[in-house]
């Protein structure tokens, strides 16, 4: 007769109980945790998001018409001065135009210039870089010569010369900067394409009979998007600074269009007596450029965290 077997629980024997296997967190939660772990990216995205929101809402939140002039209210100081007024929180300029309203509408100008310039420069530079990196040989030699020639040209001097010949305007500044700031896109995409053209997925697409345009657009280009996004943020900040430089020198956006560089230029005659006419647009411009650079640096860390030195 068999004796009954007794089961002893882990609690009695002192053996550890088996741990319960928790399901892994969803992909979106892991991605959000990585994004929030990039403090520079979070701060830059927050600042840039507020600037974009203010620019888009400018027609509704601006307290005054940014073009309306009232010389009886010229050079009213901001609200923190003794002679400040809540009617003009950031004061007025030399023509009596509300400074806060012009700052809000000037953000629209800067963002449009930065975004459209990055798109134009990205299209030119990416096309040249992908063709040079994929085909190599004589195509690479010719495009590399074009890139070297472009790098030998000082951007500011060429922009000043062309703007003085053609005439300054918003459209001229966008086209001019787009034709001058494509070199970084070309260098990055050429190097990345040279590394990817011999990859297994490219060889598999060729074996299946895919055409060259299909391989470049559907197989190669999506793998370059992370690098292109980082370069685009840097070039946006570069374009905004160059536009402010041209506008400050009178060869960029023309008055009465609100532009932060133009606001600095219009206030330079009063910088020793009313310094806020230069400090306010200068600080806002620096904050926007810093936010864009923080976003670009954060995207670089997020897409290639092990590639940092």
From TrEMBL:
The lineage of its organism: Bacteria, Pseudomonadati, Pseudomonadota, Betaproteobacteria, Burkholderiales. Keywords: Cell membrane, Membrane, Transmembrane, Transmembrane helix, Transport. Its main location: membrane. It is a multi-pass membrane protein. The chain crosses the membrane at residues 45-63, 109-135, 155-182, 273-295. Belongs to the binding-protein-dependent transport system permease family. It is found in: Cell membrane. CDD domains: TM_PBP2. InterPro entries: BP-dependent_transpt_permease, MetI-like, MetI-like_sf, OppC_N. It comes from Polaromonas jejuensis. This is ABC transporter permease. It holds the Pfam family OppC_N. Residues 107-296 form the ABC transmembrane type-1 domain.
């Amino acid at each position: 007769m068999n004796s009954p077997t007794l089961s002893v629980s882990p609690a009695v024997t002192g053996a550890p109980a088996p741990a319960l296997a928790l399901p892994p967190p969803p992909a979106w939660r892991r991605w959000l945790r990585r994004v929030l772990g990039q403090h520079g990216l979070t701060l830059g995205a927050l600042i840039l998001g507020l600037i974009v929101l203010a620019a888009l809402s400018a027609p509704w939140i601006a307290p005054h018409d940014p073009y309306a002039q009232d010389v009886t209210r010229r050079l009213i100081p901001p609200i923190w001065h003794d002679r400040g007024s809540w009617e003009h929180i950031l004061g007025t300029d030399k023509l009596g135009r509300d400074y806060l309203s012009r700052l809000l509408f000037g953000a629209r100008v800067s963002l449009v210039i930065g975004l459209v310039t990055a798109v134009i420069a990205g299209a030119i530079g990416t096309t040249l870089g992908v063709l040079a990196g994929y085909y190599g040989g004589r195509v690479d030699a010719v495009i590399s010569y074009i890139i070297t020639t472009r790098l030998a040209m000082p951007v500011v001097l060429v922009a000043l010369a062309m703007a003085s010949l053609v005439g300054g305007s918003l459209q001229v500044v966008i086209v001019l900067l787009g034709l001058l700031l494509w070199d970084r896109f070309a260098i990055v995409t050429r190097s990345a394409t040279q590394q990817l053209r011999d990859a297994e997925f490219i060889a598999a697409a060729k074996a299946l009979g895919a055409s060259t345009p299909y391989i470049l657009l559907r197989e190669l280009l999506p793998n370059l998007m992370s690098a292109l996004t980082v370069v685009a943020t840097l070039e946006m900040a570069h374009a905004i600074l160059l536009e402010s430089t041209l506008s400050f020198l009178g060869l960029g956006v023309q008055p009465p269009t609100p532009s932060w560089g133009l606001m600095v230029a219009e206030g330079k005659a009063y910088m020793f007596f009313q310094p806020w006419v230069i400090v306010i647009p200068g600080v806002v411009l620096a904050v926007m450029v810093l936010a864009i650079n923080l976003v670009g640096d954060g995207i670089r860390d997020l897409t290639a965290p092990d590639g940092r030195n």
